[in-house]
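does this look right to u?? iron/sulfur cluster version
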Amino acid sequence: MSEPINFYDLNQNGLTEFVVAAGHQKFRAKQLMKWVYHQGITEFSAMTDLSLAMRAWLAESVCFDLPEVVHHAVSKDGTAKWVVRLASGNCVETVLIPEKSEGRVRNTLCVSSQVGCMLDCTFCSTGKQGFNGNLSTAEIIGQVLIANQMLAERNEAVTNIVFMGMGEPLLNYEAVMAAADLMMDDFAFGLSKRRVTVSTAGLVPAIHEMMGRTDMSLAVSLHAPNDELRNGLVPLNRKYPIKELIRVCSDYIESLGERRSMTIEYTLMDGVNDKLSHAHELAELLANVRCKINLIPFNPFPGSGFKRPSMNRVRAFQTVLMQRGFATMLRTTRGDDIDAACGQLVGQVQDRTQRQARYREHLKAGRTAAQTRRIAAKELA
Ligand code: SF4
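got this back:
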């Protein structure tokens, strides 16, 4: 007998194909999804509108394996973090950021899509962990279920999801697309397409591929207004330079219709990319792009070599962008007492790339962050 299939690995199309291939009617897939995602029932014997024969087949062919929670912490500001262990033995992190404003609750979940990350952006602590593989759709969906379990205790649920945890989601394209399908499917989590966002460092071919495949929202981690600066911060930029990236993002946003816009993520690092001239250059670059800009003051981690700018510098940068007509949000740091702030997620990665060891060696040898970056750039080239 073949291995059971994990229910959470299948989007609606996948589940429909699966039940039809076993000789059952198409609409059974929707019935099943309602039992599992709406009622939380995973006991097939309780699914009374399915035939006994189908229930018996399901019991043999389907499992509901989820990642195991190995650590859970709640910050004094309400931000929650889970460390979950995957089937591979690696651990990744998931962060929930609850916000209340004008009586409305917003629970944003930041999910991981890869174990570590191979892109090695110089300011990112996840990047320093090396890379050890992709998460399955079930392992991504599992993160949503775990957060919903906690939120159910106060009659709430996840309202927004961002693929901004560990990893570059578009390097795990198929699993991420299927997970996003489930997040936006009325028979599963039913979130609006505006509330599910994939955040990428700029994988141009994959953004192109998203057109017509999905209508979820898009965020780009830009962090610099020109190629020279971005090449040093986001090594992927050497392959897909800024103009090419902005063009494909604009095409994607256009494909979603007139009322949609994208998010530009810009981490501000003291003396690196936070000068007023950078703000003006950014405004020029984005002059014809439908976007809002999120400014994120850098969250330092040991050996990063970067510093967080003063609030005066941050505000001055924001003011330039606002004066140039951009909706510009300042992302306040949340959950830094539990290491859950942006760029602090590290999990436990069995590093196949040996990047952690190389990084530690460079630091031990007393090399500066800039030297470490130059060496890393050569290794990547
Ligand atoms: S910033 Fe994102 S893409 Fe870059 S190394 Fe970190 S996780 Fe990877």
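Confidence is low (pLDDT under 50) at residues 366-381. idk if thats expected tbh
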